[in-house]
Amino acid sequence: MSNQTMSPDPSFEQYFQTRNMVVYDLETQKTFDEIGATFGQKNQHLLQVSFLGLYSYDQQKYFGFFEKDLPNLEKILFATRPLIIGFNTKAFDNLVLQPYFQKLELASLPQLDILDEVYRQLGFRLKLETLAQACLGEGKSGSGLDAIKYWRTGNLSALTKYCMDDVRITKAVYEYGLRHGQLLYTSAGEIRGIPVSWGQTPPMRDLVDASAQQHLQLEIEYWEFGKISERQLLQCVIDVIARDDNKITALCHTPHLGERIFDLRHILNAHITDQTFAHQTVLF
Asked: Each residue's pLDDT tens digit in the chain (284 positions)?
């Protein structure tokens, strides 16, 4: 078992400090073709686990488990009984993992399956890649077939990195939904929203409104989209003048002072500073 400490987003640290939640993703040793099955059949356990990556909100660390380490993972989950967050975990990951556990029934743990939420809202499935590109401006680093190749060639460092990247992206997509109350995806060249149950009171909207009401500058990381393949991450300090649903009118101080419109849905991170507005704005 390995672990890696990574700092949480300081703007939203209070939401995660004491939560008994984990995000996980696993990679397999075999393909569906090799076990003579298709997705949806209840024999995913034959795929076998090569590596499992996990993020613990309680410990604010990433952990890695190879197949031989899974009994230790069962002990941890059995003792702590966390909320399981993942992407397609109910129909896939949990079924592959369950045979390694002797005491714990994974289905008995509370579950937040992001793909389940998407399907409930849209009536069809989306790939994690699709959500990540629209919400975060980045995609996956490969495919599950790449992970199987890494396992078979003994390239364990590449296997670990690929799986941990998937955990990080799944975590970031979940947190985007928490902040905004929705996830984004692209359809016919347009970015569309999917309401999510775990973000019914969007903290990002509250943060923007608090910045305006207190007349304190807001430091943001913002995805600016041109064409779908053209996007850049901007970092700037803004004075919020007004907000109309997702449209924010603000003065941007960097790189040049000027009024512009921001889309609330594209703010990736935000932090209220201790600096007051440098000008008089419309009072909320």
From this structure: 555 444 344 445 454 555 899 999 999 998 877 776 655 556 777 899 999 999 999 999 999 999 999 999 999 999 999 999 999 999 999 999 999 999 999 999 999 999 999 999 999 999 999 999 999 888 776 677 888 999 999 999 999 999 999 999 999 999 999 888 889 998 888 888 898 988 766 678 888 999 999 999 999 988 887 654 567 788 889 999 999 988 999 998 866 668 889 999 889 888 899 988 866 544 44
- Kindly tell me the sign of the dihedral angle through the C-alpha atoms of 221, 175, 60, 163: negative
235: Cβ contacts below 8 Å, ≥ 6 apart: 219, 220, 221, 222, 254
Q: Are residues 169 and 257 in the same domain?
A: no
Q: What is the largest CA-CA distance in the chain?
A: 68
User: What residues have CB less than 8 Å from 88, skipping those under 6 apart?
Assistant: 113, 115
The rounded distance, in Å, linking the Cα atoms of 204 and 271 is 10
Same domain for 93 and 225, yes or no, is: no
- 221 plus 271 within the same structural domain: yes
Token pair 């960097």 is found at: 254
Q: Determine the Cα–Cα distance for residues 151 and 157; give it in Å rounded to an integer.
A: 10
